[in-house]
Design a protein that fits this description.
- The chain is mainly β.
- The protein contains one helix and eight strands.
- Strands 1, 2, 3, 4, 5, 6, 7 and 8 form an eight-stranded antiparallel sheet that branches.
- Strand 5 and strand 6 form a beta hairpin.
- This is (S)-ureidoglycine aminohydrolase cupin domain-containing protein.
């Protein structure tokens, strides 16, 4: 299988994280990644709920995301990955390598 994206579903099909590994420089330029805000976080476990869809590009780091209530099902991504996290996802981020990312939230007012 030569798929660049890995969809993953928590408890329902619409809550899928998509990971695009090593997107091209032209794709990153087209998305305007460098103009997005940056966020950094040290290693640890964090419980998060996404109130809006987030698209992020990891400059560095390594993360395992577990859907709420699961300790065995997860999706993993890291530096060089473009990740889309669906609105409504409740999850735990297990950060093994400090994260530095650019991010953008989709808003329904656009």
């Amino acid at each position: 299988m030569a798929s660049a994206s890995t969809p993953w579903s928590s408890s329902s099909p619409e809550l899928a994280i998509t990971v695009e590994s090593n997107p091209s420089k032209s794709r990153l330029l087209e998305l305007g990644i460098k103009s997005w805000p940056k966020w950094a976080c040290p290693p640890g476990k964090y419980m998060l709920k996404f109130e809006a869809q987030e698209t992020c590009y990891l400059v560095r780091g390594r993360v395992k995301v577990y859907p709420k209530g699961s300790s065995s099902v997860f999706v993993e991504f890291g530096a060089g990955d473009l990740v889309t996290i669906p609105k409504g996802l409740s999850c735990t981020w297990e950060i093994s390598v400090a994260v530095d990312k650019h991010y953008k939230f989709e808003s329904s007012s656009n």
